Amino acid sequence: SARVTLRRLDEMKAAREPIVMVTAYDFATARLADRAGVDMVLVGDSGAQVVLGHDSTAEVTVEEMLVLAAAVRRGVSAAFVVVDLPFGSTELSDAQAVETAVRFVKEAGADAVKIEGGGAARLSRIRAIADAGIVVVAHVGLTPQTAVALGGLRAQGRSEASAERFAREALAVQDAGASLLVIEAVPADVVDVVLPAVAIPVIGIGAGAADGQVLVAHDLLGITEGKTAVFVERFAAVGDAIHAGFAAYADAVRSGAFPAAEHGYRAPAEAVAAAAR
Ligand code: KIV
Ligand code: NA
User: Fold this and answer.
1) Is 45 annotated as a binding residue?
2) How high is the ipTM of this complex?
3) Could you report the per-residue pLDDT of 182-196, keeping only the tens digit for each?
4) Fewest Cβ atoms nearer than 10 Å: which of 14, 94, 232, 268?
5) Is 84 known to sit in a ligand binding site?
6) Residue 214: CB within 6 Å of ligand 1?
7) Which atom of ligand 1 has the smallest separation from the CA of 44?
8) Are 135 and 104 in contact (CB under 8 A)?
9) For residue range 194-217, what is the model confidence (pLDDT) as tens digits?
10) Exactly one of 11, 59, 160, 184 is catalytic; which is it?
11) Ligand 1 within 6 A of 216 CB?
12) Which spans of this chain does the record mark as coiled coil (predicted)?
């Protein structure tokens, strides 16, 4: 299918065609998502947790994200590829943020970069990256990189002050030059009163219907173990399938059922004889 462009995403918003976005962190999964027809693939810094085993997204490095992003890029032919700018790679200055964003475009082939937050310094970063000609996806509401400062991984926009901040930031990131907006963990009622003023496509996660949805692949595929956020729905039981596959393999090796003759190579009798000499 045709490559998804920013223009196509704008058209989808205008036509009220829901935009489908999912995370991926490796070649094989990205290719499966692309072939399934998702519109956007996000190389999320959630990879810090779901593929690298860290406790928070803040622990993943630019170098690690570059490896994941380049692998995803190689697996995607149609979807629009967005890469998260990890914590620490944009905080020092606009110049640092532009330098990081340029690396994800040049070294990993990102179509866009995503940056969390909508405070004054964040707006300056968004403006600087957009001015460099790189498509910026903003991310407001719950911003996991700075969740400690937000009081933990909890929904935003549930107090007057928090709802006011959310509304202000959602509009400000658009004015600063963001081309797309991710809203995470904000009550739909609060999102709904702000959306009419947002012209760019809005992708929600725990934020109501918006123009599209994003979920972490491991969550929606049923690979993530234990408790997941309220906004997660499991659409498959891939974790169970992987477990069953490994267990069946282990059983077959231990019982001698694997390998069978058909899993091996054959040699002519002369080669066997030569090996025995
Ligand atoms: O890193 C991530 O997976 C994300 C999505 C949840 C939006 O930022
Ligand atoms: Na993220």
Assistant:
1) yes
2) 0.99
3) 999 999 999 999 999
4) 268
5) yes
6) yes
7) 1
8) no
9) 999 999 999 999 999 999 999 999
10) 184
11) yes
12) none
